[in-house]
């Protein structure tokens, strides 16, 4: 009995993980953890949520190109770049390929490369495997592989390519149809350079016969038997409902919706109330999971990371908050 009390403390529900000598012990009390010289992670925090491994030193590249072997936090405090745990300093650890605007490559430190206005390709990179030319998009949307200096448009970066064409993208017209073209030629909504019609669905408001609005592609809208309102048309405010809107209460919050939309979202519709200023939307308490601990409270009080409101009118039981 004494050992059980030591492991769980006075409250058997107040337990968590404990880091001790690089290993993690799960479901113990803070008293037990401190007693063995460990670091208590907190109530309801399990060993699956963290790592007890001690950080290891590694190579750190400083701005002047020199290399030191430090812990990551020490490296970052010196404005250095941490290469990784257990890495070591070698002759080329903190040097890499440096591309100048003429497309010439030389191996320098990051500081030396930046000081010359050139593009540093990363620690440990080599000119043998680095391309110092890249894709250039001109105003007409054509793409060419040139040096940064020779680019008369938008230079996308060393090593970038023109396949697939990064200078054109998906264009959605008002009917919801998609075509890949340049931004200059697009008279609809342009999704951005490099996008394809596979990347976008040209979505917009789709109105069902009952006034319910969904945000979908023109194809999906037609399959649902709805009316497509156009690319980019939002569902809020609802463009589908032409009749009077009324108060809809959801978890104590009021919004003006149709009766169908309110019911779909699990709300309580007040047909004779057309303003939220005079609507009465009382909150009802329910079960709130804070990790594995369950309390009864309002939805507004069950917010934040790790908290889950089960629902108004729900109750706490022994397995309510067990995943």
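-> sequence recovered:
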């Amino acid at each position: 009995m004494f050992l059980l009390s030591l492991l769980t403390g006075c409250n058997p529900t107040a337990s968590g993980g404990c880091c001790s000598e690089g290993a993690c012990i799960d479901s113990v009390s803070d008293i037990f953890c401190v007693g063995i010289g460990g670091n208590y992670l907190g109530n309801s925090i399990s060993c699956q949520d963290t790592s007890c491994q001690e950080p290891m030193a590694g190579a750190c590249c400083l701005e002047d190109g020199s290399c030191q072997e430090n812990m990551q936090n020490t490296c970052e405090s010196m404005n250095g770049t941490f290469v990784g745990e257990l890495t070591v300093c070698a002759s080329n650890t903190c040097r890499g390929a440096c591309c100048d605007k003429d497309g010439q490559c030389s191996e320098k430190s990051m500081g030396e490369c930046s000081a010359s206005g050139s593009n540093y390709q990363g620690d440990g990179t080599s000119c043998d495997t680095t391309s110092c030319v890249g894709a250039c998009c001109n105003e007409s949307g054509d793409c060419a592989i040139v040096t940064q200096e020779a680019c008369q448009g938008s230079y996308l970066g060393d090593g970038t390519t023109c396949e697939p064409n990064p200078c054109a993208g998906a264009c959605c017209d008002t009917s919801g149809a998609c075509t890949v073209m340049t931004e200059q030629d697009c008279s609809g909504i342009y999704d951005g350079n490099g996008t394809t019609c596979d990347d976008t669905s040209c979505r917009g408001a789709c109105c069902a016969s009952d006034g319910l609005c969904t945000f979908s592609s023109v194809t999906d809208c037609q399959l649902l038997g709805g009316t497509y309102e156009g690319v980019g048309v939002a569902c809020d405010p609802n463009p589908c409902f032409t009749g009077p809107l009324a108060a809809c209460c959801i978890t104590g919050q009021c919004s003006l919706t149709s009766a169908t939309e309110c019911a779909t979202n699990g709300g309580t519709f007040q047909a004779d109330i057309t303003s939220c200023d005079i609507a009465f939307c009382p909150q009802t308490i329910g079960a709130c999971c804070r990790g594995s601990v369950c309390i009864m409270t309002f939805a507004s009080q069950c917010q934040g990371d790790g908290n889950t409101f089960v629902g108004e009118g729900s109750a706490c039981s022994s397995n309510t908050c067990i995943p």
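Helices lie at 2-8, 30-35, 72-77, 110-115, 218-223, 259-264.
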